[in-house]
Design a protein that fits this description.
The structure holds two protein chains of two kinds.
Chain A lengths: L2 H34 E6 H7 L8 E15 L4 E8 L4 H7 L2 H10 L5 E7 L11 E8 L4 E10 L1 H4 L11
Parallel strand pairs in A: 1-2, 4-6
Antiparallel strand pairs in A: 2-3, 2-5, 3-4, 5-6
Chain B lengths: L1 H28 L3 H30 L6 H6 L6 H6 L5 H20 L10 H22 L5 E4 L5 E4 L7 E2 L15 H16 L1 H12 L6 H5 L1 H25 L10 H26 L3 H24 L13 H22 L16 H33 L3 E3 L1 H21 L10 H24 L5 H32 L3 H11 L1 H26 L1 E7 L4 E4 L2 E12 L4 E12 L2 E6 L2 E5 L4 E5 L1 E4 L3 E10 L7 E9 L2 H30 L9
Antiparallel strand pairs in B: 1-2, 1-3, 5-14, 6-7, 7-8, 8-9, 8-10, 10-11, 12-13, 13-14
Helix pairs in contact in B: 1-2, 1-6, 2-5, 2-6, 5-6, 5-7, 6-8, 7-10, 8-12, 10-11, 10-20, 11-12, 11-14, 12-13, 14-15, 15-17, 16-17, 17-18, 17-19, 18-19, 19-20
Classes of the chains: A alpha/beta, B alpha+beta.
């Protein structure tokens, strides 16, 4: 007799519980996204934004110019220049894949360039024509201070590229 | 010649799998068992055919046939034979064949079972799995052919094609480009096949689930049939993830094991869905509930398996500035979409049929807690998925690409993981249908009381980080509850049957392997949680440039730099090898040899850390480099990683638990055939 009101109040209890959990998960996602969001830019976009970026954390992608790599082993200070790589997928396709796109980007004398400074262990994958993904802030002197450096060499490993991370 | 044989084998496999799918479906619809049988034979043929194709690739790889494009891209003369063999999964083309080969082997094995009363599911199982196989094989036949040769066209371009293009001459390079030295590590050699085994094995429960939907079977037969397959898939997936972490820790030289990289997450997503599935199927077996949900979970798991293969094979997301290197990206995308949508619409079509047989009554019943467990796993899954696709979403909406890094995943998943730990402590004490917070409280208070000592001891021991305190306390509670459950069960047998404790434990586990195997898995998770909290919160690091004889201090450790040697090896490496002594509390405890190997052929340096690995901590030294002027002054980076070994040990315990659940239940199944009156309940 009392089965149906009891069952419905039971259902309400479960719905409320489920709702609370979902709300908690949504809150966690939203607040963590807010806390950890970083702009992901190309070098062109960074220059276009100029001061609008401020001292916010940004993630940048570019291609490494091998001749510019300098590493001071005593202070673990690594400096190198990266050149702009278009973010546009079609342009990369047009160039014949990422490896070719990276090569072309470095050859372009008019392409935007940026000097990066990173303090830490020099990653094994850092080399000419590797794609570098750096996270950090723009310094007042026009040098990008990276606290994280990821590298990728598309020519050699195809899909199974190990990303090498450091810092963070 | 061999290349042609291999290629023909792929073509025949493609046709055979298409035929198998068609014949089985036709036979089932027209009620012609001969066609179903013929479809099954076609399915059984795919295994040997793909074995021929795989053997052909391996033969070409090991005998240096660099005129084959794939061979030239993944092997070189200087590689040892075992690495040439494993190059089968070193690149895209080969690994697709390898995937297909595993799949053919698994589906054939599953189709050889006794079908008896499940006869009507067989044709649909064949159809579902053979369509998937046909898709994978078609990728290798039409787009990513591992047997394509290199040619020099008339205008001097290098082209890759199976057949000689007009006016082109064959190219026969003397050496290949070789496997990157960073990938030449045992962990990296077993890691991809372990993941693949896990990925591929999920096709079995998925295939049976679809067969159950098509044949309108609303019972839990498909779950029971595939129970062991699900566990096998799950354990390989788990092992694949753990081995990948171990490889990163040993090779990448940054003192970490997991970086929340999209490719890592792509492998984690099916694991999360699969783990939720593993738990929630028990509710259906016991109570006939959650039937829709289990279907959703297996469809989701399988879609994520395909998605994971797609991501790790196509590189779409591995760089956030995406690139689609090969033609298979869109093909994959379409296939995943179609699979997912067709499966879901089939489920919706059969929705009414899958009505639950019971309702949730108590908040603290086993089924309610399992449901909560599923919520949390799904929560972590959504967090990870959101993190991976967020750049794409933000670009779509704001035109600005915004990414989230590891802090996002740690912040959002931390509380959910803690919730799972607490649940892991409570749920084993609950009963189906009826338990309340009172009955659970009665079982919980003793282990909970013991657990209280843990935060107190930690606090006294200067461990005051709130996250560490919460995590360790929850993990300790799981451990005590689980051990207490073992103790209670064994003591009960001891009293009732007079068995000694080891025998009682053994028999108890044998009677209910899934329950006690599951508990052992939980203990493995506890160990891993201890390790993860240890290294994540208490890792310390330092760096120093030293001349020979100088020293550096990190916590209780002192390291002295004794010597360096730089030499060429006969396999094409230049090695810089340092000798350092490690002192702990003033006592010499170890001598380590951090190295930097430079591979001349691939112009690639590989940093190999020197590690003193103990249960309590790892002392992990990297040789950063040599001072170019003195050639003897060296810079080191040193990490102190507390408890990291518990991650690997926990992984071992975890695997052991799964083996108990799979292996013992198999023995029990045989035993129960002889004694029909076995009504023992399984948790």
């Amino acid at each position: 007799m009392s089965e149906s009101p009891k069952a419905s109040s039971g259902r309400g209890k479960f719905l409320l519980g489920g709702f609370l959990i979902v709300a908690a998960i949504v809150y966690l996602i939203a607040s963590s996204t807010q806390a950890a969001a970083q702009y992901y830019l190309t070098i062109d976009e960074l220059y276009a934004k100029g001061d609008a970026v401020g001292d916010r954390d940004i993630k940048l992608s570019g291609v490494v110019d091998g001749d510019t790599i300098k590493y001071d082993i005593k202070t673990l200070t690594l400096r190198f220049t990266i050149a702009n790589v278009p973010a546009d997928l079609d342009k990369i396709e047009e160039a014949g894949g990422l490896a070719e796109a990276l090569h072309i980007a470095l050859e372009d004398p008019k392409g935007a360039r940026l000097e990066v400074e990173y303090i830490g262990v020099m990653p094994d994958l850092l080399r000419h024509e590797a794609q570098a993904i750096v996270t950090g802030r723009m310094g007042g002197d026009g040098i990008f201070r990276a606290d994280e450096l990821l590298l990728k060499c598309p020519t050699r490993y195809e899909g199974e590229v190990p990303l090498q991370a450091d810092g963070a | 010649m061999v290349a042609n044989i291999g290629y023909y084998a792929l073509i025949i496999t493609f046709l055979a799998s298409l035929y198998g799918a068609g014949a089985a479906a036709y036979g089932a619809l027209k009620r012609k068992p001969d066609f179903v049988e013929s479809g099954r034979y076609a399915m059984l043929l795919t295994g040997p055919l793909l074995t021929v194709a795989s053997a052909a690739i391996i033969w070409l790889l090991t005998t240096g046939h660099y005129e084959i494009s794939y061979v030239a891209s993944v092997t070189s003369n200087s590689m040892p034979t075992y690495l040439k063999v494993t190059a089968l999964w070193g690149g895209q083309e080969g690994s697709l064949v390898f995937w297909a080969w595993l799949m053919a082997a698994f589906t054939s094995a599953a189709s050889l079972r006794k079908w008896d009363r499940d006869r009507e599911m067989l044709p649909w199982f064949i159809m579902v799995t053979m369509i998937t196989l046909a898709f994978f094989v078609s990728l290798t036949v039409f787009f990513e052919n591992p047997f394509a040769r290199l040619w020099l066209s008339a205008d001097g371009q290098q082209v890759t094609a199976m057949l000689q293009p007009a006016g082109a001459v064959p190219l026969n390079p003397p050496d290949g480009r070789g496997l990157n030295p960073l990938l030449r590590h045992p962990g990296m050699i077993i890691h991809p096949p372990a993941l693949y085994l896990g990925f591929v094995a999920y096709v079995i429960p998925y295939g049976f689930a679809m067969a159950a939907l098509i044949t309108r079977r609303s019972d839990d037969r498909w779950i029971r049939i595939t129970r062991r397959w699900t566990l096998v898939a799950w354990i390989f997936l788990s092992l694949g993830l753990i081995l990948g972490g171990r490889w990163a820790y040993d090779v990448l030289g940054w003192g970490g094991y997991w970086g929340w990289d999209p490719v890592e997450i792509a492998a984690l997503l099916p694991w999360l869905a699969g783990t939720a599935f593993l738990h929630s199927v028990m509710v259906q077996e016991k109570k006939g509930m959650l039937k829709h949900w289990n279907m959703v979970l297996i469809i989701l798991t399988y879609a994520l398996v395909l998605f994971g293969t797609f991501l790790s094979r196509s590189g779409v997301l591995s760089s956030v500035h995406a690139f689609a290197k090969s033609a298979i990206g869109p093909m994959f995308f379409i296939f995943i979409g179609v699979t997912f949508l067709v499966s879901l619409s089939l489920l919706i079509n059969r929705w009414e049929m899958l009505k639950g047989e019971n309702f949730l009554k108590s908040m603290f019943s086993r089924e309610a807690l399992f449901l909560l467990n599923n919520f949390l796993f799904m929560g972590i899954l959504v967090v990870c998925f959101w993190g991976v696709i967020f750049p794409l979403i933000s670009e779509l909406i704001t035109g600005q690409k915004i990414t989230v890094g590891p802090p996002f995943y740690e912040r959002a998943n931390g509380p959910l993981g803690l919730g799972l730990l607490i649940l892991m402590a409570i749920a084993p004490l609950s009963a189906y249908a009826s338990s309340t917070w009172k009955t659970i409280g009665r079982a919980l208070w003793k282990p909970a009381l013991v657990t209280l000592l843990v935060p107190i001891a930690l606090f006294v021991g200067e461990i005051r980080n709130p996250i560490a305190l919460a995590g360790y306390t929850a993990a300790a509670l799981v451990a005590f509850v689980t051990l207490y459950e073992f103790w209670r069960g064994a003591m009960a047998r001891h009293r009732r049957h007079g068995e000694n404790l080891p025998l009682a434990l053994w028999r108890m586990a044998g009677r209910n392997p899934r329950r006690y195997g599951g508990y052992v898995i939980h203990l493995g998770v506890v160990l891993m949680a201890f390790g993860i909290i240890g290294i994540e919160i208490y890792q310390t690091e330092t760096q120093a440039s030293l001349s020979r004889g100088e020293q550096v201090t990190l916590g209780r450790y002192v390291m002295t730099y004794d010597d360096i040697s730089v030499f060429d090896t006969n396999d094409g490496r230049n090695v810089a090898r340092a000798v350092v002594s490690v002192y702990k509390d003033g006592k010499l405890v170890d001598e380590l040899y951090p190295r930097k190997d430079y591979y001349y052929d691939s112009q690639q340096a590989v940093t190999i850390p020197g590690t003193r690995s103990m249960l309590a901590d790892d002392f992990y030294v990297i040789l950063v480099g040599l001072d170019p002027d003195s050639r003897t002054d060296a810079t080191f980076k040193i990490y102190h990683n507390p408890l990291v070994n518990l991650i690997w040990i926990g992984g071992g315990v975890f695997s052991l638990g799964t083996i108990i659940a799979v292996w013992v239940s198999r023995g029990r199944k045989r035993a129960s055939k002889t004694s029909t009156a076995s009504g023992i309940s399984q948790a």
